[in-house]
Protein backbone atom coordinates (compact mmCIF):
# COMPACT_ATOMS: atom_id res chain seq x y z
CA UNK A 1 0.00 0.00 0.00
CA UNK A 2 2.89 2.37 0.78
CA UNK A 3 0.69 4.32 3.20
CA UNK A 4 3.47 3.89 5.75
CA UNK A 5 5.29 6.66 3.84
CA UNK A 6 2.70 9.29 4.82
CA UNK A 7 4.37 10.56 8.04
CA UNK A 8 7.68 11.18 6.24
CA UNK A 9 5.89 12.79 3.29
CA UNK A 10 3.95 15.16 5.57
CA UNK A 11 7.17 16.00 7.40
CA UNK A 12 8.78 16.98 4.10
CA UNK A 13 5.78 18.93 2.82
CA UNK A 14 5.40 20.97 6.02
CA UNK A 15 1.83 21.70 4.86
CA UNK A 16 -1.40 19.66 5.25
CA UNK A 17 -1.80 18.92 1.53
CA UNK A 18 -4.22 16.05 1.28
CA UNK A 19 -4.82 14.96 -2.32
CA UNK A 20 -4.03 11.43 -3.42
CA UNK A 21 -1.20 12.42 -5.77
CA UNK A 22 1.19 12.64 -2.83
CA UNK A 23 2.17 8.98 -2.76
CA UNK A 24 2.66 8.42 -6.51
CA UNK A 25 4.57 11.70 -6.82
CA UNK A 26 6.88 10.71 -3.99
CA UNK A 27 7.46 7.24 -5.44
CA UNK A 28 8.20 8.58 -8.94
CA UNK A 29 10.68 11.07 -7.46
CA UNK A 30 12.36 8.29 -5.51
CA UNK A 31 12.71 6.10 -8.61
CA UNK A 32 13.97 8.97 -10.77
CA UNK A 33 16.55 10.01 -8.17
CA UNK A 34 18.21 6.61 -8.47
CA UNK A 35 19.05 7.37 -12.10
CA UNK A 36 19.33 11.14 -12.54
CA UNK A 37 19.69 14.37 -10.57
CA UNK A 38 17.43 16.63 -12.68
CA UNK A 39 14.08 15.92 -14.38
CA UNK A 40 11.65 17.84 -16.56
CA UNK A 41 8.03 17.56 -15.46
CA UNK A 42 4.64 18.42 -16.94
CA UNK A 43 3.27 20.37 -13.98
CA UNK A 44 1.35 23.46 -15.03
CA UNK A 45 -0.15 22.25 -18.31
CA UNK A 46 -3.47 21.26 -16.74
CA UNK A 47 -3.73 24.58 -14.97
CA UNK A 48 -2.96 26.95 -17.85
CA UNK A 49 -4.59 24.87 -20.62
CA UNK A 50 -7.70 23.73 -18.68
CA UNK A 51 -6.73 20.08 -18.49
CA UNK A 52 -8.88 19.00 -15.56
CA UNK A 53 -12.36 17.54 -15.76
CA UNK A 54 -13.66 20.38 -13.56
CA UNK A 55 -12.92 22.86 -16.36
CA UNK A 56 -14.98 20.78 -18.76
CA UNK A 57 -17.83 20.69 -16.26
CA UNK A 58 -17.59 24.48 -15.87
CA UNK A 59 -17.67 24.88 -19.64
CA UNK A 60 -20.73 22.62 -19.92
CA UNK A 61 -22.51 24.39 -17.06
CA UNK A 62 -21.90 27.90 -18.39
CA UNK A 63 -23.18 26.99 -21.86
CA UNK A 64 -26.00 24.69 -20.73
CA UNK A 65 -28.87 27.25 -20.65
CA UNK A 66 -28.14 28.33 -24.22
CA UNK A 67 -28.05 24.84 -25.75
CA UNK A 68 -30.90 22.93 -27.45
CA UNK A 69 -32.55 20.27 -25.31
CA UNK A 70 -30.95 17.45 -27.28
CA UNK A 71 -27.45 18.79 -26.54
CA UNK A 72 -28.36 19.36 -22.88
CA UNK A 73 -29.44 15.73 -22.55
CA UNK A 74 -26.24 14.61 -24.24
CA UNK A 75 -24.11 16.56 -21.76
CA UNK A 76 -26.07 15.19 -18.80
CA UNK A 77 -25.29 11.68 -20.03
CA UNK A 78 -21.63 12.46 -20.65
CA UNK A 79 -21.13 14.14 -17.27
CA UNK A 80 -23.16 12.43 -14.52
CA UNK A 81 -22.08 15.10 -12.01
CA UNK A 82 -23.31 18.00 -14.19
CA UNK A 83 -26.89 17.95 -12.88
CA UNK A 84 -25.73 18.38 -9.27
CA UNK A 85 -23.28 21.08 -10.30
CA UNK A 86 -25.96 23.03 -12.17
CA UNK A 87 -28.14 23.05 -9.06
CA UNK A 88 -25.33 24.09 -6.71
CA UNK A 89 -23.29 26.35 -9.02
CA UNK A 90 -22.65 29.75 -7.44
CA UNK A 91 -22.94 32.83 -9.64
CA UNK A 92 -19.95 34.52 -8.00
CA UNK A 93 -16.61 33.27 -9.43
CA UNK A 94 -14.86 33.55 -6.04
CA UNK A 95 -17.53 31.51 -4.28
CA UNK A 96 -17.66 29.11 -7.22
CA UNK A 97 -13.94 28.41 -6.99
CA UNK A 98 -14.20 27.70 -3.26
CA UNK A 99 -17.25 25.54 -3.93
CA UNK A 100 -15.38 23.51 -6.55
CA UNK A 101 -12.33 22.93 -4.36
CA UNK A 102 -14.04 22.33 -1.00
CA UNK A 103 -13.85 18.83 0.47
CA UNK A 104 -16.50 19.62 3.08
CA UNK A 105 -19.73 21.62 3.05
CA UNK A 106 -20.25 24.31 5.68
CA UNK A 107 -22.54 21.98 7.63
CA UNK A 108 -19.93 19.21 7.53
CA UNK A 109 -17.24 21.60 8.77
CA UNK A 110 -19.56 22.61 11.62
CA UNK A 111 -19.92 18.94 12.59
CA UNK A 112 -16.18 18.35 12.22
CA UNK A 113 -14.74 21.30 14.13
CA UNK A 114 -17.75 22.84 15.89
CA UNK A 115 -17.80 26.12 13.96
CA UNK A 116 -18.65 27.44 10.53
CA UNK A 117 -15.87 28.49 8.14
CA UNK A 118 -15.40 32.26 7.66
CA UNK A 119 -17.43 33.84 4.88
CA UNK A 120 -14.42 35.52 3.23
CA UNK A 121 -11.63 32.99 2.81
CA UNK A 122 -9.56 35.24 0.54
CA UNK A 123 -8.45 38.79 1.20
CA UNK A 124 -9.26 41.26 -1.57
CA UNK A 125 -5.62 41.65 -2.64
CA UNK A 126 -5.29 37.86 -3.07
CA UNK A 127 -8.11 37.55 -5.60
CA UNK A 128 -7.09 37.71 -9.29
CA UNK A 129 -8.34 40.75 -11.16
CA UNK A 130 -11.48 39.96 -13.13
CA UNK A 131 -13.57 42.46 -15.04
CA UNK A 132 -16.60 40.18 -15.15
CA UNK A 133 -16.56 39.71 -18.92
CA UNK A 134 -14.28 36.67 -18.95
CA UNK A 135 -15.48 33.25 -20.00
CA UNK A 136 -16.29 31.27 -16.81
CA UNK A 137 -13.64 28.73 -17.78
CA UNK A 138 -11.00 31.47 -17.92
CA UNK A 139 -12.24 32.79 -14.57
CA UNK A 140 -11.69 29.32 -13.12
CA UNK A 141 -8.21 29.16 -14.67
CA UNK A 142 -7.36 32.56 -13.13
CA UNK A 143 -8.16 31.25 -9.66
CA UNK A 144 -6.46 27.94 -10.33
CA UNK A 145 -3.19 29.59 -11.32
CA UNK A 146 -3.36 32.07 -8.44
CA UNK A 147 -4.02 29.58 -5.65
CA UNK A 148 -3.91 25.85 -6.31
CA UNK A 149 -1.02 25.91 -8.77
CA UNK A 150 1.59 27.58 -6.49
CA UNK A 151 0.17 26.44 -3.14
CA UNK A 152 -0.41 22.80 -4.00
CA UNK A 153 0.91 21.68 -7.38
CA UNK A 154 4.31 23.38 -7.41
CA UNK A 155 4.81 23.14 -3.64
CA UNK A 156 4.09 19.41 -3.64
CA UNK A 157 6.50 18.77 -6.52
CA UNK A 158 9.26 20.95 -5.06
CA UNK A 159 9.13 19.49 -1.55
CA UNK A 160 8.79 15.85 -2.61
CA UNK A 161 11.48 16.02 -5.28
CA UNK A 162 13.92 17.64 -2.85
CA UNK A 163 13.04 14.97 -0.28
CA UNK A 164 14.92 12.63 -2.63
CA UNK A 165 17.61 15.17 -3.62
CA UNK A 166 16.07 15.48 -7.07
CA UNK A 167 15.73 18.75 -8.96
CA UNK A 168 12.44 19.02 -10.83
CA UNK A 169 12.02 21.69 -13.48
CA UNK A 170 8.70 22.81 -14.97
CA UNK A 171 9.18 24.10 -18.55
CA UNK A 172 5.42 24.39 -19.12
CA UNK A 173 5.33 27.09 -16.46
CA UNK A 174 7.59 29.43 -18.40
CA UNK A 175 5.81 32.76 -18.00
CA UNK A 176 5.79 33.36 -21.77
CA UNK A 177 3.92 30.11 -22.38
CA UNK A 178 1.47 30.90 -19.56
CA UNK A 179 0.83 34.35 -21.03
CA UNK A 180 0.26 32.79 -24.46
CA UNK A 181 -2.16 30.24 -22.99
CA UNK A 182 -4.14 33.06 -21.37
CA UNK A 183 -4.77 34.63 -24.81
CA UNK A 184 -6.24 31.47 -26.34
CA UNK A 185 -10.00 31.09 -26.79
CA UNK A 186 -11.64 28.47 -24.58
CA UNK A 187 -12.53 26.31 -27.59
CA UNK A 188 -8.81 25.54 -28.01
CA UNK A 189 -8.62 24.34 -24.42
CA UNK A 190 -11.90 22.51 -23.88
CA UNK A 191 -13.99 20.74 -26.52
CA UNK A 192 -17.40 19.52 -25.36
CA UNK A 193 -18.09 17.73 -28.65
CA UNK A 194 -15.09 15.42 -28.43
CA UNK A 195 -15.06 15.51 -24.61
CA UNK A 196 -11.37 16.36 -24.55
CA UNK A 197 -9.24 18.66 -22.46
CA UNK A 198 -6.11 20.57 -23.55
CA UNK A 199 -7.08 20.35 -27.23
CA UNK A 200 -4.27 22.62 -28.40
CA UNK A 201 -1.67 20.50 -26.60
CA UNK A 202 -2.78 17.28 -28.29
CA UNK A 203 -2.75 18.83 -31.76
CA UNK A 204 0.61 20.52 -31.16
CA UNK A 205 2.19 17.25 -30.06
CA UNK A 206 0.89 15.58 -33.22
CA UNK A 207 1.79 18.38 -35.61
CA UNK A 208 5.40 18.54 -34.43
CA UNK A 209 5.82 14.75 -34.04
CA UNK A 210 6.44 15.02 -30.30
CA UNK A 211 4.02 12.17 -29.60
CA UNK A 212 2.35 9.58 -31.80
CA UNK A 213 -1.40 9.57 -32.40
CA UNK A 214 -2.18 7.02 -29.70
CA UNK A 215 -0.24 8.84 -26.98
CA UNK A 216 -1.35 12.36 -27.95
CA UNK A 217 -5.05 11.46 -28.01
CA UNK A 218 -5.07 9.06 -25.07
CA UNK A 219 -7.73 9.72 -22.48
CA UNK A 220 -6.57 11.56 -19.39
CA UNK A 221 -5.76 9.23 -16.49
CA UNK A 222 -5.83 10.28 -12.82
CA UNK A 223 -2.45 10.26 -11.08
CA UNK A 224 -3.59 9.13 -7.67
CA UNK A 225 -4.09 6.15 -5.36
CA UNK A 226 -7.12 3.83 -5.03
CA UNK A 227 -8.15 5.78 -1.95
CA UNK A 228 -11.59 4.27 -1.45
CA UNK A 229 -10.22 0.73 -1.86
CA UNK A 230 -7.50 1.27 0.72
CA UNK A 231 -9.52 3.20 3.30
CA UNK A 232 -12.72 1.15 3.12
CA UNK A 233 -11.14 -1.50 5.38
CA UNK A 234 -9.54 0.59 8.17
CA UNK A 235 -8.75 -2.52 10.22
CA UNK A 236 -6.18 -3.55 7.59
CA UNK A 237 -4.32 -0.22 7.58
CA UNK A 238 -0.92 0.39 9.22
CA UNK A 239 -1.14 0.76 13.00
CA UNK A 240 -0.60 4.55 13.04
CA UNK A 241 -3.57 5.00 10.68
CA UNK A 242 -5.77 2.74 12.77
CA UNK A 243 -4.87 4.88 15.78
CA UNK A 244 -6.05 7.97 13.89
CA UNK A 245 -9.26 6.52 12.46
CA UNK A 246 -10.25 4.06 15.17
CA UNK A 247 -8.16 5.02 18.22
CA UNK A 248 -7.76 8.02 20.51
CA UNK A 249 -5.35 10.26 18.56
CA UNK A 250 -8.04 12.67 17.33
CA UNK A 251 -9.62 12.89 20.78
CA UNK A 252 -6.24 13.67 22.32
CA UNK A 253 -5.56 16.45 19.83
CA UNK A 254 -8.91 18.03 20.69
CA UNK A 255 -9.52 19.75 17.35
CA UNK A 256 -11.73 17.44 15.30
CA UNK A 257 -14.87 15.67 16.42
CA UNK A 258 -13.85 11.99 16.76
CA UNK A 259 -17.45 10.80 16.53
CA UNK A 260 -17.98 12.56 13.22
CA UNK A 261 -14.64 11.25 11.92
CA UNK A 262 -15.77 7.68 12.70
CA UNK A 263 -19.05 8.44 10.93
CA UNK A 264 -17.14 9.48 7.80
CA UNK A 265 -14.93 6.38 8.02
CA UNK A 266 -18.09 4.27 8.07
CA UNK A 267 -19.36 6.01 4.93
CA UNK A 268 -16.36 5.03 2.79
CA UNK A 269 -17.34 2.77 -0.07
CA UNK A 270 -15.90 1.71 -3.40
CA UNK A 271 -19.35 1.57 -4.97
CA UNK A 272 -20.00 4.22 -7.59
CA UNK A 273 -16.62 5.93 -7.21
CA UNK A 274 -15.30 7.35 -10.49
CA UNK A 275 -14.26 10.51 -12.32
CA UNK A 276 -17.74 11.91 -11.80
CA UNK A 277 -17.46 11.67 -8.01
CA UNK A 278 -17.03 15.28 -6.91
CA UNK A 279 -16.04 14.45 -3.32
CA UNK A 280 -16.13 11.01 -1.69
CA UNK A 281 -16.00 10.06 1.98
CA UNK A 282 -12.55 8.59 1.26
CA UNK A 283 -11.34 12.00 0.07
CA UNK A 284 -12.62 13.57 3.27
CA UNK A 285 -11.08 10.92 5.52
CA UNK A 286 -7.73 11.15 3.73
CA UNK A 287 -7.68 14.90 4.38
CA UNK A 288 -8.35 14.19 8.07
CA UNK A 289 -5.45 11.71 8.13
CA UNK A 290 -3.07 14.25 6.57
CA UNK A 291 -4.20 17.04 8.90
CA UNK A 292 -3.79 14.82 11.96
CA UNK A 293 -0.30 13.71 10.91
CA UNK A 294 0.65 17.32 10.18
CA UNK A 295 -0.58 18.47 13.58
CA UNK A 296 1.26 15.64 15.29
CA UNK A 297 4.49 16.53 13.52
CA UNK A 298 4.49 20.30 13.95
CA UNK A 299 2.35 21.10 16.99
CA UNK A 300 2.29 18.13 19.36
Q: How is this structure best summarized?
A:
By secondary structure, the protein is mainly α. The protein is built from 17 helices and four strands. It has helices spanning 6-13, 22-33, 45-48, 53-63, 69-78, 82-88, 93-101, 106-113, 136-163, 175-183, 199-207, 213-216, 227-231, 239-245, 249-253, 258-267, 281-298; strands at 38-40, 167-169, 190-191, 196-197.
Describe what you observe in this structure.
The structure is a single chain. A two-stranded parallel ribbon has the order 1-2. Strands 3-4 form a two-stranded antiparallel sheet. A hairpin with a 4-residue loop joins strand 3 and strand 4. The chain is built from 17 helices and four strands. The chain is globular. The longest helix has 28 residues, at 136-163. By secondary structure, the protein is mainly alpha-helical. The mean pLDDT is 90. It folds into two domains: 1-15 and 224-300, no CATH class; 21-220, no CATH class.
Amino acid sequence: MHLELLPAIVRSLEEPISLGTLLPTDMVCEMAAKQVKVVLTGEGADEIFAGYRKFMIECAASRFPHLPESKQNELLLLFPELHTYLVQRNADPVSRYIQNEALFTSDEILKLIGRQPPLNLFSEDAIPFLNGNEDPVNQAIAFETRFRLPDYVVLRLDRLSMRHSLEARTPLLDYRLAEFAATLPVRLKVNLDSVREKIICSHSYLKHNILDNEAALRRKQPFTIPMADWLSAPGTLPDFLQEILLGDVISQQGILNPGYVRFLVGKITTHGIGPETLVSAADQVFSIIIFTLWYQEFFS
